[in-house]
């Protein structure tokens, strides 16, 4: 096992992490290079952006007020850039606006993690049981939803959309709710199944994996911490050596009694890459952290995530664990058409060693999981980027043939840009960059919302 890197949190003080203080609407920002005309839609990026005073030494790095950034691309032009706070109760009150309509559930309505589209709607999603917030085409907050009353508890930051069935699956957890909920939403966006799965200690389950047959539940040793809660943490979870670590293989239509639990080495996973079945095996690729939320309660400071493959053997009920790449990296994305299917390519953000909890890094990596080859797209001196989303060149394009879209922050100018990288020249310069006169702070997840 690699030793724990001495992670620094100093990157949180760098300019790329500083929240922006206002919402702006910028028509026709400058494009350098040539924006592919096939890109007709809106690039979305969400993350924490505290409204009001912000103190990285006191505030949990995951708890800042949700802000969504968007760039509308059409006909080879960028029609607009916008950034908007999601109207949580706290933000609406601070801005002197009416509260967001819709139900309220759980500890927080701060949906600052991810953006997903399902059944014709766009949702901002939070962790720890927050209800989804529905967003409009211009990034405005519409309402909070419980899927027409079909959601029994909270929701998840990382549901998985099955590209074949158009059903959305999720594992939801929240402080105070026993077990976790395995949810299946039908193609119309209503929960058609909810199975409560028994786990102890209320583990953090930021995500899970899905194949065409099974859900794979991560029961890992970051668990609810009453001490952190009493100390006022807005994310009261901590590493727990006594919890153990195991994967639960749950048939998609099964229940609690059907879960097969298999022990693995203690670790934490925020983000799966992909998963699929292969004969009696299940391949589960993840960004594996050796440890998280141990020494520093406000930040997963000991993280040095790398790419691992868990091979689940259904016959023996065991898991083989293998590191596929020892480079520090996070924020994996694939060609989403290959979700739950055998796949070859993964894109991740290459992070600086010692900054494994950073939200951005100096490069994007492309993994060829068949040959083991890793290609590197570097952003250039003083430039760092976060999660990049893949858009296929055409509906029938080969796997991973298209463009990667991601936000880059330039330290010298303290400004942001959207870069468009053609995977046909992955290591070359971007084919286009939309340059903004403002910063887009490093944040969490990105999404491409194709128009129509
Ligand atoms: Fe996430």
From TrEMBL:
InterPro entries for this protein: Carotenoid_Oase (IPR004294)
Presence of keyword Ligase: no
GO biological process: carotene catabolic process
Superkingdom to which the source organism belongs: Bacteria
Cofactor binding note of this UniProt entry: Binds 1 Fe(2+) ion per subunit.
UniProt-recorded Gene Ontology molecular function terms: carotenoid dioxygenase activity; metal ion binding
UniProt: Fe cation binding residues: 158, 206, 271, 445
EC number(s) on file: 1.13.11.-
Keywords recorded for this protein, A-Z: Dioxygenase, Iron, Metal-binding, Oxidoreductase
The protein's required cofactors: Fe(2+)
PANTHER family for the chain: BETA-CAROTENE DIOXYGENASE, CAROTENOID 9,10(9',10')-CLEAVAGE DIOXYGENASE 1
Descriptive protein name: Dioxygenase
Species for this entry: Streptomyces pluripotens
